[in-house]
Amino acid sequence: MNSTLQSAPILLKSALIFCLIFALAACTDSKYTAPVDDPVVVIVQPPEAPEALSIVVSGVVLESGATNIIADASLSFFESGQAASNIIDISSGESIATVVAEDGTFQVAAENIDEFTVKVSAEGYFDKLVNISIADNAQIVQVVVELLSNQIDAVGSGSVERQITGSIVDTDISLSSDDESAVDDTTEGKGEVVIPAGIQFVDEQNNPIDVSSVKLEVTYMESQEAETAEEESVSIAELIPEGLNSDSSVDEVLVPIGLTEVKLTDETGSPIKNFSGDITVTIFLPDTTIDPSTGIAITQSSNLRVRTFDTETLTWTTEPESAVTIRPKDSDNLFPVDITVNHLTIFALTAEVSACTNDVTFDLTGDAVPQSGLDLVIETGDLKKTFSIPSAATELKILANDVKAAGIMQDVDS
Length: 414
Known about the structure:
Largest sheet: 6 strands, antiparallel
Structural class: mainly beta
């Protein structure tokens, strides 16, 4: 394959993190050369770690698109979808599964693991899941977590409460992200869910869940380009948990074009995620939405797939192709895309695009990679993936399988 990789401006943040941001034009090799000038921005100086701790994970929580540090963010650590047992509090030496970044920074130690997941939450922001990989021989892992404000444009949400006695829905429960409960909806499309009468709430073992009331919430997000110099573009990649393209049984890259999350809780706030039968989640896409597989606007015959993310187990699932039905365009110039499922979760509506099948190597020249390492952030379309570069490395090689899992497409400009 003859292709080139073009690099966009590079952002370096030192003391806490060095970050390279590349806009990926296609899949081939690229180079990073340390700049001659010294554009260093000191964010935080982490305290020295005790020598007995071999791997220190140090990070900061920032507002996406800005340099504002977010105080009092809550972090939860997971290993293989379960609460972590190998994350250590540096002060006490005890195992912890949660921590509060009171000043927006955090520092923990990792023992006997090479990867884990962090869920970051803060008031006024959308939750963010970050997968952290620990390179061989690493001593320090630096992490920057960017949270997206829930007050931005391009997001619509609605909620409704219903009194129910027992475990069976007596009359249909329906909700749209642009109904009367929505506040300042700025989206062109919308998300909707219908739970039909007769459906029973069940747990993962199919046991009935009795309730006295439920609360249903729908959030819809779409990518939007900035219309003025003061505005910023919004990408649904900011909200999609990592791993969208982790399904090895799918040869293509799945590029997201629509995203909605549906939550259902009982009177105690406990989540209800499963049903005795099928419900319908609908994503209404504007008819101007570009189908990445064709490069033109979507039609009723577009081939779309859906991936769902379970926020409890932190796992992605590829739903059957038969689960997706595109209905004719409505009077609002929206294509209703029905997703038939028996569970609630995050729904990512995607188009299939040929994946890059080559290994990708980034050669690092100039000054040596610092002890704190570097983060290489690859952004292509509405996909985003971070790779860690260990101290003193001279190259970063991403194997073909990982290239596809990162969502890197074949010969596609970004």
